[in-house]
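Below is a filled-in request sheet from our internal design queue. Each sheet records the structural input a requester submitted and the sequence that came back. We keep these sheets so that new team members can see what a complete request looks like end to end.

REQUESTER: design group, bay 2
PRIORITY: normal
MODE: inverse folding
CHAIN LENGTH: 274
BACKBONE (tokenized):
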């Protein structure tokens, strides 16, 4: 359970005291199984279930599993110092997540300005509540290869991964005329995939001194695959005075910046005067 109380002192001709509570509770059950065979094959499986206070009662429980396996093939090849370590690994996992508290209904509060004999109240939501909110589910797959050579003085680690998030909980900008700045929605599907490569060497190794050199490379591709039914773009933030917005657009990166470009001539040069 997370409980946080915030106390603030404010002065409006006189000192007043306000207290705000932030309460969130998650009940969880977790299980894991680990199996190994001859220091060569390893299998792991987990299963977790969460119940969150920040989601509707009909959708506040979500269960997600994971499976992973590895094969240490160097144990079978027995090549000694030529290939002291080699491992192939693979995993699949699903993860669920919730959101912040007080997103399902209207929240009321008192006005900071209290007139003699009167207490003014108002709705304190900037975001339209969503009573049908669902938990976010993320599926990920990873495969990797790790090898070391020549008494562990040369090695590499290669990883390829792909990740897809469905029903991602996000705030979508809305018209101020509704009295709210955002509305809470379950977006469609967002995909991440990429590679990570690590090279490690020990070019110098003597009795009392060694020098390690490590190189790392990574690349990630992010793309919006699908949004809410009937929409191909969702505005996340907007700077109206610049006519620029940050948006989630189908087929493009999540959080793409959209706005007017420079004025250019027929050669593509930017025009900076008439």
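RETURNED SEQUENCE:
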């Amino acid at each position: 359970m997370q409980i946080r109380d915030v106390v603030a002192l404010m002065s409006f001709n006189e000192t007043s005291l306000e207290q705000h509570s932030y309460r969130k509770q998650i009940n969880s059950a977790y299980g894991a199984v680990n199996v190994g065979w001859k220091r060569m094959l390893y299998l792991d499986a987990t299963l977790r279930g969460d119940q969150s206070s920040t989601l509707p009662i009909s959708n506040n429980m979500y269960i997600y599993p994971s499976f992973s396996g590895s094969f240490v093939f160097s144990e079978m090849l027995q090549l000694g110092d030529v290939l002291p370590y080699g491992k192939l690994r693979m995993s699949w996992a699903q993860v669920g997540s919730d959101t912040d508290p007080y997103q399902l209904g209207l929240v009321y509060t008192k006005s900071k300005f209290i007139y003699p004999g009167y207490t003014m109240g108002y709705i304190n939501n900037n975001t339209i509540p969503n009573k049908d909110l669902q938990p976010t589910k993320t599926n990920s797959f990873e495969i990797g290869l790790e090898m070391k050579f020549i008494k562990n003085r040369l090695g590499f680690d290669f990883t390829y991964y792909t990740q897809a998030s469905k029903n991602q909980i996000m705030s979508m900008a809305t018209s101020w005329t509704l009295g709210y700045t955002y509305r809470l929605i379950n977006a469609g599907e967002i995909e991440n995939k990429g590679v990570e490569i690590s090279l490690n060497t020990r070019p110098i190794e003597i009795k009392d001194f060694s020098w390690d050199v490590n190189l790392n490379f990574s690349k990630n591709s992010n793309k919006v695959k699908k949004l809410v039914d009937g929409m191909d773009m969702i505005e996340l933030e907007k700077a109206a005075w610049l006519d620029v917005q940050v948006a989630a657009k189908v087929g493009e990166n999540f959080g793409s910046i959209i706005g007017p470009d420079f004025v250019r001539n027929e050669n593509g040069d930017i025009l900076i005067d008439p």
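SHEET NOTES:
- The longest strand covers residues 189-206.
- The longest helix spans residues 74-77.
FILED BY: M.R.
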